Amino acid sequence: MPGEDCSSRLGLQLYLCVPLDDFFEIQARNSVIPGLAAATRERPLIGLRERKKDAIGRCARNTYTEVTGLTHRLLVFHFTTKGLAYYVKLNAGILHGYKSTLAKKSFNDKVDWGVWHFNGNLPLCAVSGDDGAELVSAYVLLDFSSTFVAMSCSYSSVPLEEEELQLYLCVSREILDRIKDINCVTPDLAANTKWRPIIGLRERKNDAIQRCEQNTRATVTDRTHVLIAFRFTAKGLLYFTKKNAGISYWYESTLAKQYFDDGKDWGVWHFNGDNPLPLALEDDGAYLVLAGVVDF
């Protein structure tokens, strides 16, 4: 609706500035493809920004053109809580090194540039195939102002898997007692190699066990060790993905999937930062994360 402001809605709002010709093609396609996202060097990704001025600056640099409200359009993509959880969990495939489809980008200059990458084609609007709940919707900012106009589009129906994300951590029973005492996991209690201030989580139980064996050089059995399962709800994924881990971690998302150059999806996630990973955390009566011990 003209005049509708989506900035106050719960979720994540990101901006993309494109030339007018590309805008019309985006409308015709009902989605943004990397080639229409003012990308450089034919990169197969869509570069989104948290701030309007940064999206406009990106477009000007990448296209070597003067950006005005007459020659360009500023798109706003609103990812709902459910939508962000879906795209963060969804890996983008081998072409993108199995990165999360939507991921915050960090840099070595220790500045939070508010940069996000969408790895693949970004629909103008998408809903859950299960219950019709909105995942993402696109708006246009008229003349780069604060007037939002919803883009006309055909909704894509996405078959959702479980909205929640379950990750595993293997630790010794002695460490478990210390974790229970403080009701959270800190990097020094996460079976890390000594110099890494992160909590390494895995999508699969066997990988969590193997990680513990490699890092601690101990024989891991169900008598000496335990598996902790962390269940992040959709609201929890929104919270920890949007929350940056601070300057020491180059402003990376607090919870972020890791990718590697060998073309394999290892199911590795890092919980970054000095803030501990709680065994349970609520917000307005809704759980963000819950933890419990599970069988090997």
Walk me through this protein's architecture.
This protein is of the alpha+beta class and 296 residues long. The chain folds into two domains: 12-158, Heat-Labile Enterotoxin, Chain A (Alpha-Beta Complex), CATH 3.90.210; 165-294, ADP-ribosylation fold, CATH 3.20.170. 21% of the residues lie in helices and 32% in strands. Strands 1, 4, 8, 9, 10 and 11 form a six-stranded mixed sheet that branches. Strands 12-15-20-19 form a four-stranded antiparallel sheet. The termini are far apart. Residues 1-8 have low confidence and may be disordered.
Describe this structure in a few short sentences:
This protein has 296 residues and is of the alpha+beta class.
Shape: elongated
Query: How many helices?
Result: 6
State the major sheet. 6 strands, mixed
**Poorly predicted ranges:** 1-8
Radius of gyration: 21 Å
User: CATH topology of the largest domain, which one?
Assistant: Heat-Labile Enterotoxin, Chain A
Total beta strand runs: 20
CATH level-1 class of the largest domain: Alpha Beta
Q: Which helices and strands appear, and what pairs or packs with what?
A:
Layout: E1 12-19, H1 20-29, E2 31-32, E3 46-49, H2 52-63, E4 72-79, H3 81-89, E5 102-104, E6 115-118, E7 122-123, E8 125-128, E9 134-141, E10 148-150, E11 156-158, E12 165-172, H4 173-182, E13 184-185, E14 198-202, H5 205-216, E15 225-232, H6 234-242, E16 255-257, E17 268-272, E18 277-278, E19 280-283, E20 286-294
Helix pairs in contact: 3-6
